[in-house]
Every structure is written in structure tokens, then in C-alpha cells.
Write a structure and sequence with these properties.
about 20% strand; about 400 residues; alpha+beta; 4-stranded mixed beta sheet; single chain
Length: about 400
């Protein structure tokens, strides 16, 4: 059988198209229908606590659709009557469409057996079983609660996050699927019983066999990628290594995936049957937690763009900045900016700006400045301030004037 060869440019166009890039941003503000389609195309939105610029789950929708009302997304994620998304561990902590919940029950079952969860929870789950059950009983009797509202928050554990026993118990129950997020206050989770949060028709759906669920998740990852390696597909929903090869073999045999050779890739490429090669035009900034780029080796393979988040790097050793967003211009990653939303002053601060080698600095700065102004408006800030750090800063400052 002849193996299809895919150029690096074709692979890039396939990946961008699969992720929903390249569509014109309309004059009308996107509503829930467009937001829902965008989330379904990605499969999930990763949640992260860092808010120096904007919450990470808001940005991927903005990057694809442009300015939208974040309250619409909040309603569908956290409002009891209008909710259409639920929270669970998918890539990391994530928001997902309801119909993904049955596909993740095997992970909940693993957690209940003490497997497939963060190691810090394992001894706690074994040693504090009575405390965990008491916490569940309190939620059952009292209704939605935050960790701080528990009668017994317990002792603080660990040098890093320093979580108390009550928070550990709730998070373990969250892993097991026995409680879920009923709402968020600020960024604090409000927990309730899963059966009081998710729709009855979702909970009534049959639980797929573990292998079938994992196979469906691999296929969903493949559709979101368009083209990928086996490692890429495994990473999307953080699946166990043992399931990847047999599931992919079945998907290839079924015709859902096509093996191919991608220019510059060491490993076999896997092309989703719906993948299309389309030219991509547009300009947008990407959060570090955008599914297009969260697998950094894939980002480098597709775009020849080396990218790392430097939040946990000591300030003196950071190369580009604390919270750096790549700038996607048409089909290339051409620059990166370190952004901070100074909400008190009403300023979007561009703390540093760096261009990639070989770019037309003035052209890139012009398109980037346009995007920064749109972003400033979307965040409800009043002005954009370009700081002097970075080789693109001077050109951006000229454009800002």
C-alpha cells in the first residue's frame, strides 16, 4: 500500500484548519452557537489558575472567534440552568461538553481504585477514608460548598499548594466523579454531588467499556489535531500508554485514521479521515494553554517554533518573560509577547515583544499592534502600553503612535 506523503506546510494547514483557525471574524459578536461549535471542535478548554493576563479557558475561543462576551461562556460552564459544560480531568483540569462525560468514567473508576491520579492523593485516599466519606456526607446534606465552607477543613498539607485535608478530600471525590463543580466564585470551586449538577439524560447513558472509551477519545483527539503522531494523540486526553497502539491499529483498520509520512517528522503521521488542507489567513494571539500548542514538541514540528512557558523559571533566567503568548500570523508563528493586564490602571502592558528570525519587523508589528488593540478592547481595558524590552518593541512603539 502506498503511504501518503504530507509536506510540512500541508501538515500545518491541516492542523490549523482542524483547530478552527482561518475563518473570518464576523462583525457581529459571536454567540453561544459559535462558541459551542468552537469548543466542540477543540474537544475541551483547559483551565488554569494564572490570571496575570486572562483566564486560560477564555482565550482559545477568542483566538478563533475574536471578541465575545465571556459571560456567555461562564453561563454555559457554571450556571445551574444554562450549563452545557462540565469540569473534569481531561488534558489537565478542563471544561468539556456534556456528552464527553461517559467517555471519562473509566478514569473516575480508576481514581476510586487509587490509580491514575496525582501521587499526593494516594496515601491520603488510603489513610483518610472515613474523613473523605464524612466530607461527601456533608456535601450530600448541606448542598454546594467550597472547601473553606466545610465544618472541618483539616490540617494544611504539602509545601507547594499547601492544601488542607478538606480540599484534598473534595479533590479526590472530584477525581472519582462523585462530586463536580456546581459553580465558581472568583476562581474557587463550589462542589456538589455530580447527580445534582449534570443532566439526568447524561448520567443515564451507558458507561462504555474502558477500551471503547479510550478509542473514542483517541479519535476525538485525532479530529481536533487533523494530523498527529501517536504521542500527540495520547497527550491530548492524557491517556495511558498501553491503550494507544492497539486503539490506533483498530482506527486505521476501520478507515478513521490514515497513516502518512510527514516531511521532517521522525514518527508516523496519522491523518484523520475528515482532515482538509486549507490556506489559513488571519492574526491572533494564543494562550500558553491553547490546544494548538500545548504539546510543545508538536508546536516545534509544525511551526519550527521553540516555545516554553516561563512562569516557574526564576525571573533572572527568563528569556522572554513570565506569561508569553505566541503571535500567529496567517500560517506562521512570527512573534511572542509577554502580557500583563493591569486592571487597576486599565492598561494592557506588553512587557516584552520578540520577533522570530527572518520576519518583516514593521509588517509583523503592524498586524500585532492591531491585534493588541482588539485584545485590549475585549478585556475592557482602556489603553495598550508597549514597554521597551525585546527586539520587536521599537517597531511596536512606532505602530502604537
Amino acid at each position: 500500500m502506498t503511504v501518503r506523503t504530507v509536506s510540512r506546510l500541508e501538515a500545518r494547514r491541516i492542523a490549523l484548519s482542524a483547530q478552527g483557525f482561518g475563518k473570518p471574524r464576523g462583525k457581529l459578536e459571536p454567540g453561544w452557537r459559535q462558541i459551542r461549535q468552537t469548543i466542540r471542535r477543540m474537544g475541551l478548554l483547559q483551565i488554569d489558575s494564572v490570571n496575570v493576563f486572562a483566564r486560560s479557558h477564555y482565550m482559545p475561543v477568542y483566538s478563533r472567534l475574536g471578541g465575545y462576551d465571556r459571560a456567555v461562556l461562564d453561563d454555559r460552564a457554571f450556571d445551574a440552568k444554562r450549563r452545557r459544560l462540565f469540569e473534569y480531568w481531561a488534558h489537565e483540569a478542563s471544561l468539556l461538553p456534556f456528552d464527553m462525560q461517559p467517555l471519562l468514567r473509566w478514569r473516575m473508576a480508576q481514581a476510586a481504585r487509587g490509580a491514575g491520579i496525582y501521587k499526593s492523593y494516594l496515601p491520603f485516599a488510603k489513610e483518610r477514608r472515613d474523613f473523605i466519606e464524612a466530607t461527601l456526607h456533608e456535601i450530600t446534606e448541606e448542598g454546594p460548598l467550597t472547601a473553606r465552607q466545610l465544618r472541618d477543613c483539616g490540617e494544611r498539607r504539602g509545601p507547594w499548594w499547601g492544601r488542607r485535608d478538606g480540599k484534598m478530600a473534595l479533590e479526590y471525590l472530584f477525581w472519582c466523579g462523585r462530586v463536580t463543580t456546581a459553580a465558581r466564585r472568583g476562581f474557587e470551586r463550589v462542589y456538589d454531588l455530580t447527580e445534582r449538577v449534570l443532566p439526568a439524560d447524561i448520567l443515564a447513558q451507558p458507561t462504555p467499556a474502558e477500551r471503547d472509551a479510550q478509542k473514542a477519545l483517541i479519535l476525538a483527539a485525532a479530529e481536533a489535531h487533523g494530523i498527529a503522531t501517536a504521542s500527540d494523540l495520547r497527550d491530548y486526553f492524557r491517556l495511558p500508554a498501553s491503550c494507544i497502539r492497539p486503539c490506533i491499529e483498530e482506527l486505521v483498520e476501520d478507515g478513521d485514521l490514515l497513516e502518512c509520512q510527514v516531511e521532517g517528522w521522525r514518527h508516523v503521521g496519522l491523518l484523520h479521515r475528515k482532515a482538509r488542507v486549507r490556506r489559513i489567513a488571519g492574526a491572533t494571539l494564543l494562550t500558553p494553554f491553547d490546544p494548538l500548542i500545548w504539546e510543545r514538541s508538536r508546536t516545534e514540528r509544525l511551526f519550527d517554533f521553540h516555545y516554553r512557558i516561563e512562569i516557574y523559571t526564576p525571573a533572572a533566567k527568563r528569556r522572554f518573560g513570565y506569561y508569553v503568548l505566541p503571535f500567529l500570523l496567517d500560517e506562521d508563528m512570527v512573534a511572542r509577547v509577554d502580557l500583563k493586564a493591569d486592571r487597576q490602571a486599565g492598561i494592557l502592558r506588553v512587557l516584552s515583544s520578540h520577533g522570530e528570525a527572518g520576519i518583516d519587523g514593521d509588517r509583523v508589528a503592524g498586524r500585532l499592534m492591531d491585534e493588541l488593540r482588539r485584545l485590549t478592547d475585549w478585556l475592557g481595558l482602556e489603553q495598550t502600553k508597549i514597554h521597551k524590552r525585546g527586539d520587536l518593541a521599537a517597531a511596536l512603539q512606532r505602530q502604537s503612535r
